[in-house]
Amino acid sequence: MNPIAFVKNYWRVLLLVVFVGAALVALFVPGGIFADDSVAAAANDTAANETDAAGLTNLQYGLGLDGGTRLSAPVVGMTAEDLEIDSGQTATVERTLYDELGVDPEDAIVRYDEESGSYTAEVFVDNVTRAEFAAALQEADVDATEDDVRDGVTETTREEIVRTIETKVNEAGLSGGRVTTEETLGGEYFIVVQVPDMTSQELRTLLSERGVVEVVAHYPENETQVNETVLVRDDFDTIGSASYNERGGYHYVPVTVSDQKAEEYQQQMVDLGFTSAEGIQNCGIKDPETDEIDFEQGQPNYCLMTVVDDEVVDAHSMGRDLGQSMASGEWENDPQFQMITPTQQDAQSLSVNLQAGSLRAPLDFESSQTYSIQPALADDFKLYSLFIGVLAVFTVSGVVYLRYTDVRVASPMIVTALSEVVILLGFAAAIRMPLDLSHIAGFVAVIGTGVDDLIIIADEVMSEGDVNSRRVFQSRFRKAFWVIGAAAATTIIALSPLAVLSLGDLRGFAIITILGVLVGVLVTRPAYGDILRYLLTGEK
After folding, report:
1. Which residues, at least 6 apart from 473, have a Cβ–Cβ distance to it below 8 Å?
2. What domain range is 145 assigned to?
3. 162 and 119, same structural domain?
4. 365 in any annotated domain
5. Is the pTM of this model over 0.70?
6. Contacts of 152 (CB under 8 A, 6+ apart)
7. pLDDT tens digit string along 276-335?
């Protein structure tokens, strides 16, 4: 048979081979199909091995198979909607909210809602009442009453929080983490964070950090020391990873200031005296032995402080080389410097906060729900899942062989059914889907339903005697395929609500089962038909 005819007759089998080959690449080749530098590097990293039972595949495991914590908490805040505010007055309204409610600038925001065509105002504190919020808006000449204020935040704010937490989790090197929003029957929204290989206290600590990073200048003015914020997170163009300077013996995060801010920051350092002879290398508020910050030092100090969530992480003087380049105006051409921290952990936390940005609003941990699984217990679940999968394969294989007692029918049936599992595992590895117990249940269901469909095909083809021609086989196969297609459509329709709605573990089961059904109908069942036709008719 020439190659063109072979491809024409067995393109379904070739398609199955392509899918299985791609799945194997996604499973075993470092970086998988969608390889990038970070993934490829992680394949040889110890941390990557912790997300993979044997360090041999690209599979990632979720809470049930790797241990870890799931935390669900609402967002702190109140919202006033459908406000009539002039586009040029939003900044004024925000400043009034800061002053009247006594909140920090990051705890109040006014923005335009495109869907409603009006403005919304939000405050992200728990010590302000609805009446006080409405009164503050009225003070800003905004027509608002207590009835216009509701508990909770807007969808835009929730989406920003989800993106920020996802970045925090990823930058912290916690593979397999997942962040979603869920709505209760009462209409309350929760942020759900699931992170493998992390204790509940560690996760709570990660999420409790608002992550507001500032560089604050501490300098003398009129014979007193004052603090002035000179850089915030949005002023940085690039942010590096936590690093260690072996020569200097300190930990740091390299940053580059944006071109728009570089000239202004450079001029600030000059105007405030940091580049003068008195300002360079003149910061005495940090105890060199304990690294504690003491603002009661009597001498004039010129310190650049790294402040995270209003807490001073570290304080350092202006370096001589950096000060001279700023004084000459050369620094703005290459606006880089190092944010020094006392420890590697502080540097890592600072890098994460700079990369992720600050949480738009804090989470209400008093109303949170936490669920944890110890890694040792998760390892047991992983072993039991493997055992159940192998048992399902051998059980199905035995039943199929007893049913037909014909290796020609049973062998390709088992191989085809297992190829579905390989394809699904490859898909999970390719998209970095964290596998959980619910997904394992879906894989077992795929094996069972897949073999069911293959049995329908074999029974229909062989039920009316020997198959002596290609035309007879195709006629019988079409009848069986209609039955399979109808059953697949029914399964997809029945499980679609579970796959769409936020119903916890049921969602993972539904997604894997639906994907398995689609792969079966579109790829594996037609391929099995071609294999069976060749075995029964001998036609090539």
Report:
1. 461, 467, 532, 533, 536, 537
2. 78-152
3. no
4. no
5. no
6. 74, 75, 77, 78, 79, 188, 189
7. 999 998 888 887 677 788 777 667 889 999 888 888 888 888 989 999 999 999 999 999
